[in-house]
Amino acid sequence: MFLTCCPNVYSMMLQTQINFIDNEILLTLDLQPPYKAILKKDFLHIYKDNEPLFSLPLLYPNLISWQFERGLVGFKINNNIYQTDQALKLKELLNGRLFFSKIQDFYTPLQVLGQGSSAKVLLVKSKHSDQYFAAKCVEKNELMYQEIEINNQLDHQAFVKIKEVFQGDTSYYIIMDLLSGKNLQQLIKNQHVGLTLEQTQKIMHALLSGIEHMHLKSIMHRDIKPENIVLQKNNNLTTLKIVDFGLATYTTLKKFKYPKCGTPGYVAPEIANLTDKDATYSSKCDIFSAGAVFFKLLTGRDVFPGTGFNFVLSLNKKCQIDFSVLTLKKIPQNVIRELVQKMLSKDPKMRPTATECLNHEFFTFNDKPTSAQKKTFFAQTRATTLTVDFSSPEEKPEYKGSFVTNDIVPQKCEMQKTINKFNTTEFEQYN
Questions:
Q1: CB 376 within 8 A of CB 368
Q2: CATH of the domain at 252
Q3: SS3 call for 374
Q4: Which phi-psi region, left, alpha or beta, contains residue 151 (left: φ > 0; alpha: ψ -120 to 50)?
Q5: Is 428 part of any domain?
């Protein structure tokens, strides 16, 4: 009421903010008279007749709608349309900072690349270039702001940067770089000649480097597994990316939104055995999950082999691991077994940090096996690897997928309901 009655005071406050609080100019736009816009680090400032009109904070859930008339000519904020010939430049500078609308004006959907319990990924093509991207389509919820915020904080080669986020009626579309390589699960399964020690070192070094960066930002992933480790380019282990931050959260929170979550076979036992939904745990949960990935790379088998969601989860909770299979590798046990065992400790306090893992002598060991040794090892590995034999088609996606629950039930783990329908009305006209 005060600002409405005293517009001059409001104008002075805006001017102070523009000049002193947010003083780095990124772009100046001449809009359709009498308007002008100045884009700065944290705000988009709109002027009318050279007087500040209002400022839009550059953060979620704020929204800009792009307006098309024979091409992109303007944008809409708070039901006001502003026209400019530099709208594409503005959009580029705003990428990943706040929500956009009308994804159909910028991208054409081509196919579904994958689908999980709460999201699906579409292959899309830009209408303004020949570039292809991945669009993660997720149902609207308040946790999306945190997932996007977390992604934007991770400035490291092990993570995919968010380019844009579009808002639909009931869904968000997160535009990211397209990862054309296999995920680690596919790589292990399809690598007929097996993974060499050098390949294992590269994968684990890249994975732990990403986890180290993440933990330094007080972020934990909570769903590290082979399916969430993807190569941006086929046969290039240096392009490894950690994906899917749907379960990620901050370690500094006093209470987690979803305290009990993860994937059976990879979830840390302190999470699998959680009975108090108000309890917290540390980022060492990611070290356990990375250790389970490490174990599989070295042995070709799961840490907790078996069939079915509940059975694997029960083994996961007990955390009784057979480390004897590590002797299949022709490398000194003190080089490898010590690191794997520590990473897979049931007690999180006994696990090393990601930095301590990276400093382990395993990553400097370079005694490469001969071709004959590699053939012998992988023949033995295939013979001892347990193949999961699902008893019914319905059981398979449960075992593969992550679980999320707010209700801590000691005897039974509740699965998050699968979302069968997404709001893709923006794309249906192209199907």
A1: no
A2: 1.10.510.10
A3: helix
A4: alpha
A5: no
Assigned token pair, 267:
């979830």
Annotated binding site for ATP: 136
Distance CA 87, CA 177 (A): 22
What is the phi-psi region of residue 244: left when phi exceeds 0, alpha when psi lies from -120 to 50, beta otherwise?
A: left
User: DSSP letters along 145-161, please?
Assistant: HHHHHHHHH--STTBPP
Tell me, yes or no, whether 120 and 253 share the same domain. Answer: no
Known binding residues: 136
Do 75 and 111 share a structural domain?
A: no
Helix, strand, or coil (residue 171):
strand
pTM score above 0.70: yes
Rg (CA), the chain: 25
Q: Are 331 and 365 in contact (CB under 8 A)?
A: yes
Please state the length of the chain: 431
Whether the bond into 34 is cis, omega within 30 of 0: yes
Residues 321 and 257 placed together within one structural domain of the fold: yes
> How far is 427 from 416, CA to CA, in rounded Å?
26
Backbone phi, psi, residue 340, to 5°: -65, -45
- Residue 224 CA: distances (Å) to CA of 147, 267, 319: 15, 8, 17
Same-domain check for residues 29 and 128: no
Residues 58 and 193 in one domain: no
**Residue after which a domain boundary falls, among 59, 81, 97:** 97
User: What are the C-alpha distances in Å from 428 to residues 120, 128, 178?
Assistant: 15, 20, 22
- The residues, ordered by sequence, that sit 6+ positions from 207 with a Cβ below 8 Å of its Cβ are 158, 224, 229, 240, 242, 290, 293
**Shared domain check, 131 and 71:** no
Domain assignment of residue 270, yes or no: yes
366: containing domain? 184-405
Domains: count for the chain:
3
- Edge-first strand listing for the sheet containing 43-48: 25-30, 35-40, 43-48, 51-57
Each residue's pLDDT tens digit, 345-392: 999 999 999 999 999 988 887 655 555 544 544 444 343 333 222 222
Q: Are strands 162-167 and 171-177 parallel, antiparallel or unpaired?
A: antiparallel
Task: Quickly tell me which residue has 């986890």 as its tokens.
Answer: 211
| Active site members | 223
Phi and psi based region of residue 38 (left: phi greater than 0; alpha: psi -120 to 50; beta: remaining): beta
Q: What is the pLDDT of residues 140-184, one digit of tens each?
A: 876 677 888 898 889 999 999 889 999 988 889 999 998 888 889
Q: Is residue 154 part of a domain?
A: yes
Residue 225 lies in a domain: yes
